[in-house]
Specification:
There is one protein chain. By secondary structure, the chain is α/β, with parallel strands linked by helices. It has a single domain, classed as 3-Layer(aba) Sandwich (Rossmann fold). Helices cover 34% and strands 29% of the residues. The protein contains 7 helices and 10 strands. The strands form 2 sheets. A 6-stranded mixed sheet has the order 6-7-8-3-9-10, sandwiched between helices. It has a 4-stranded antiparallel sheet with strand order 2-1-4-5, with helices on one face. The structure holds adenosine-5'-triphosphate (ATP) and magnesium ion (MG). The site of magnesium ion (MG) has 4 residues, from helix 1.
């Protein structure tokens, strides 16, 4: 059961991210302060362009904020060097991108294993998890295919396997079920929740699927860069 006395795994303080284009400035993320507890499942909803992906990328250390701090497991990721951050990400953070971001020249299997290579993991440490993920995501017969030879849903499942291969403590997923039909979307959510339970993972999902958001412990809404609580389910 989640409660506010639990351990904080993610904490953002007054995070701001702006994009400047020509003479126009867009504040994509506007003074966002959020605390997420270990083992929590948070859903972020909000209209297109409200800043959800930008915020998720900042939290996952894929981009740097213009102001504010982001701490994961107490470590300030905004103060890390690029090498420290890459290492930290590989060990603790899983990310499912809105647009998959698979490497086109790599097979499904090679794409799934990218994070293990980045952190120099030994085969023994991920082999069992690899088999489990490939089986539960129904990718056994697609491992040697290139992304261009996979359906949108299969590409999405490869991206999910890649995010989970290193058994991360915190998973950020940007519309992880966006390209899937109802049955596949429900199945992918079940897999994310099963992994979450198994590893006491923290899960932060951006979604516009209210059926998925309703399963979260907490729903937050992004509106014009501002993040506000919408509903608490615990
Ligand atoms: N690299 C960039 N350069 C300039 N502006 C950007 C960039 N990335 C995002 N933006 C702008 O920042 C704002 C937030 O974009 P973001 O992608 O975070 O929205 P979103 O909530 O994820 O939308 P969607 O639901 O469509 O995925 C938008 O106004 C967008 O145009
Ligand atoms: Mg987005």
């Amino acid at each position: 059961m989640i409660n506010e006395n639990g351990r904080i795994i993610l904490e953002t303080e007054n995070v701001i991210k702006q994009y400047k284009q020509y003479d126009e400035t867009v504040t994509a993320v506007d003074r966002v302060s959020l605390k997420v507890y270990e083992g929590e499942f948070v859903a972020i909803i909000g209209s297109s362009g409200s800043g959800k992906s930008t915020f998720l990328h900042l939290c996952a250390g894929l981009d740097r904020p213009d102001a504010g701090r982001i701490k994961i497991r107490g470590a300030d990721i905004t103060a890390m060097s690029p090498d420290e951050l890459a290492d930290f990400r590989g060990n603790y953070i899983g990310m499912v991108f809105q647009s998959h971001n698979l490497i086109p020249q790599f097979t499904a299997m090679e794409n799934i294993l990218v994070p293990t290579v980045m952190c120099g993991k030994k085969k023994l440490s991920y082999e069992e998890n690899f088999k489990k993920l490939v089986s539960s995501l129904d990718l056994e017969n697609r491992l040697h295919h290139l992304p261009s030879e996979l359906s949108g849903g299969q590409q999405q499942r490869v991206a999910i396997a890649r995010a989970l291969i290193n058994l991360p403590q915190i998973v950020f997923a940007d519309e992880p079920t966006g390209n899937l039909d109802r049955a596949n979307a429900d199945e992918v959510l079940e897999l994310l929740l099963k992994t979450k339970e198994m590893l006491t993972q923290t899960l932060i999902i951006v979604t516009h699927d209210m059926k998925i958001a309703e399963r979260a412990d907490r729903i937050m809404k992004m509106d014009n860069g501002r993040l506000t609580p919408l509903k608490v389910n615990y």
